[in-house]
Amino acid sequence: MKPRLAIAFACAAALVPSIARADHDVQIGGAMAWAFPAGSFEEGARASDETFGVAAFSLDGALRVHEKLSIGLYFQYGIVTPKLCASSSDCTSSLGHDVVLAPLVRWRVGRFGVFTPSIDASIGYEWFTSKLSDRGVTSVRGHRGVLVGVDAFAGFALSRRVILGPTVGLSFGIADHASIESPGVDASHAVDGHALHLWPKLGARVVFEI
Amino acid sequence: MHARFASISCVALLALVAIDCNATPAGTPVALPDGSPGIGFDDLRYSTTLHRVLVPGGRSGRLDLIDPQTLEVTSITGFGVTNDFSGGHDDGPTSVDEGLGKLFVTDRTTRMLSVVDPVARSIVASVALPTGPDYVRFVAATNELWITEPGASQMEIFALAADGTPTHAAFIPVGNGPESLVVDATRGRAYAHRWQGSTLAFDVKTRAIVAEWPNGCASSRGIALDEVRGFLFSGCNEGTAAVLDVAHDGKILSTIAKGSGFDVIGYAPALGHLHLAGDTCACMITLGVSSSGALSFLDRVDAPSSTHCVVADDVGHAWVCDPDDGSILRVDDTHPSSL
Lengths: 210, 339
What we know:
By secondary structure, chain A is mainly beta. Chain A contains two helices and eleven strands; from the N terminus they run αβββββαββββββ. Chain B is globular and about 45 Å long.
């Protein structure tokens, strides 16, 4: 973190004590993040072969079950950017998706003035598809399997019920199925040897407390 | 403590992202004459009669022949020369084939088809082409050369005289193509892709398109043939490879998707190994092809980030082009036969 930014956050924490408020039981969050591809979906098939990255839009809801713990659900719809498309219309048609659904556990680290950090751990399922559309002819590659994620949220209270801040995360996935849909082909099969793929993520998140 | 943890976390994340970025290409590089500015390679061939890898040297204006064992390079000059490397493969000689004891070379700078005597190492005849050529292939059954001219959506056919001199014979219109070309002497066919989605089968005697088959590709690129088994391979730019059964109306026997950015593909029929090299993945994928036409993943090695072409020889190597470096990499294929 840049020193000036850290000082600004510290000043905000000191000067705006009125924002500090009682804890709430329910949190509803939304985030936008960029996920970088790393690792492989299966033996010989790296995530970076298929995409420059994923623009991930997520929603989460969590219910407090302990002073510092909440449980909830995480949903992500990610737009998978293509690597090979040649024209703007082909590129638009070549957008894939990365859908994740996962139960989560949230550790609410504490409250330090307006600074309200939390860490989420989740384990769920991922459905990933990448596409190439070339003059209307499309090929789709798919992978699906278990995804484990850890996300750290550096939240700053903007009001009694709204928290905003940066989020950084890392998800680890192991695909168990792969598929191809292309001219003359509609195939789904177990992966060629399990491999680990990763999605380091960086983004911004807003949380509404109820 | 928190700052230190954050710093370590950031470095770890950056390292994870960088894992796929830093790689040294596999294989032994073979520098080609005048290759240092870069060479826009395209078609690569292996001559089983000359026992040489045939490398049209693009802007260098040379046809380079590489001994697969000693790596000795022999150059035949006289083709179009361009000093600067454009980054594509639009300059100089870019395709070659052999037949009748000669080599046939197409040149995109001069737009010429040349006949080369490999013993004398000289061009013995040339004829002008009406448009930019892509692939040249010798058709033994009709004693012809077929040249793809995708810019004009056509195949051009040249008849060969006894001394190998070519004379224009015909055009075959090919809408949305032709891309790549391979000749099936056993069945009297030639196969070429349309740019998207399908592969065409031509009767070499009637010069007619006799079949069109889905090929598993959104973006069709490379083609190769196991003539004995009747397996036609399509390599897709998006990273899919498919096996088509030419004896059963092009039925797709198997597909596999690894890597991406494939263009010119290579096949070693004695091993049943299919090689695909791509710039998007900066990799070369080797697949095994079983006697029933099933594809299996054998290996992935790092390749130059500008690569898009590969050919196999008959002594256990794959040859991967490195356009930015103006060189060819010899990669050992140590996998047992898949047949």
